[in-house]
Amino acid sequence: MKLLGAAADVTSVLTTIRIARPLTELIAQRPGWELTLRSLHECSAADLEWADVLIVQRGLTRRAWRLICAMHASGGRVIYEIDDLLSEMPPSLIHHAAVRRGLPWLQRCIAAADIVSVSTARLGRTVAPPRWVEVPNYGDALPQAVGASRAVDAAGTPVTLLFASSDRVPVQQVALALRELQALPGRIGPVVAVGPVAEDLRSSGVAVRPLPQIARLDFLSLLRSLGPVLAVIPIGSTSFDSCKSAIKYFDYALAGIPVVCANRPPYSDVTRDGVDVLLVEDLAKAWRAAIEIAIDEPERMAALVAAAALAVASHHSLDQTVSAWSAVLDELGPRTAAAQAAVNPWQRAVEAAAIWLRRFNRNRLARRAATRALKGR
């Protein structure tokens, strides 16, 4: 079977996690299967005619919808891949305006696809009933990290508190707790914040060590460099929040890092309070109490870490994600007839020129953005 994955950025962390990594594993198990990744801006009619199945990730444009229609016209099948409840994105999030503009195309793409793949069942029930299939996210870790506890040791080394996010996070209550703890000399170590959450914490009065978003493998390496560490995961109470996956918890568990997280979905869906995680009501006193338990009871946290690593390895592994992709692709099956050309030779020439122009403009804009970033330093 020939698989064509199309995304806005095929090199992004999201595309790697959701499509490239698991499908690369799958085709290694399936002799004769092939995978090609294309930018939505560079996907051509020839690509569509080559493929049996087109997988469109988070397409929010007229072009994404046209690719789906063209794939059907050429005789192929389409999976629409989505990992967030984009139709209910809170206004505070970074890409809200752009996503809102694309919502009409989101709905058209979902309606036109043969099936919708989602990261959680909660998301599937909300976004695409009844034509959805869960392709769950998975925990990842550096090989040497698996099973090694990173709970706070008994020697009393100040613990680093770690936050990580790809977007804005509601931190008001946890920030109150952190300010109280930072006012006590030596009570906690540095607060390390990866991604936009750094600014959320800083603007709430917390002293933070900010770090930019990084690739998943680099993030896993960072986890190994922090010494005794406690991961703290606040999350909002919106439908958008509840439909996310608990992927950060999965990675922390396999890295041996204890976790304190908000007692809300998706984390409350996949964890057990006091067994493999500490779940916290979103109140300053509750956050502080849980963080202090994690600091003062290292043996208890080591037991939680061991249980979390076992649970994630058993129920949230890459093998299970690969199996889910295998099942949905087997259900769709390959083409039952040879691909039908959707465009004539003249249209192909025009398309090739348009793709070249899109690539040129995107490279030009990337160079301009890089230049502005250097001048801003």
CATH topology of the largest domain: Rossmann fold
CATH architecture assignment name of the largest domain: 3-Layer(aba) Sandwich
- Whole-number tally of structural domains: 2
Order of helices and strands: EHEHEHEHEHEEHEHEHEHHEHEHHHH
Q: Uncertain runs with pLDDT below 50, 5 residues or more? A: none
Reported for the largest beta sheet, the result is: 6 strands, parallel
Approximate helicity band:
40-55%
What integer is the average pLDDT?
Answer: 89
* Largest beta sheet: strand ordering: 2-1-3-4-5-6
Overall number of strands: 12
Rg (CA only): 22 Å
Can you identify the CATH class of the largest domain? Alpha Beta
Strand percent estimate: 5-15%
Classification by helices and strands = alpha/beta
Tally the helices: what do you get?
15
Outline, from the CA principal axes?
Answer: elongated
CATH superfamily of the largest domain: Glycogen Phosphorylase B
- Cα-to-Cα separation, first versus last residue: 48 Å
Describe this structure as you would to a colleague:
It is built from 15 helices and 12 strands. Helix content is 48%, strand content 14%. The model has no long low-confidence stretch (mean pLDDT 89). The chain has 2 domains: 2-138 and 318-342, Rossmann fold, CATH 3.40.50.2000; 143-315, Glycogen Phosphorylase B (Rossmann fold, 3-Layer(aba) Sandwich). The radius of gyration is 22 Å and the shape is elongated. Helix 3 runs parallel beside helix 4 (96-112). The chain starts with a strand and ends with a helix. It is an alpha/beta fold and 377 residues long. A 6-stranded parallel beta sheet has the order 2-1-3-4-5-6, sandwiched between helices. A 6-stranded parallel beta sheet has the order 9-8-7-10-11-12, sandwiched between helices. Strand 4, helix 4 (96-112) and strand 5 form a beta-alpha-beta unit. The longest helix has 32 residues, at 345-376.
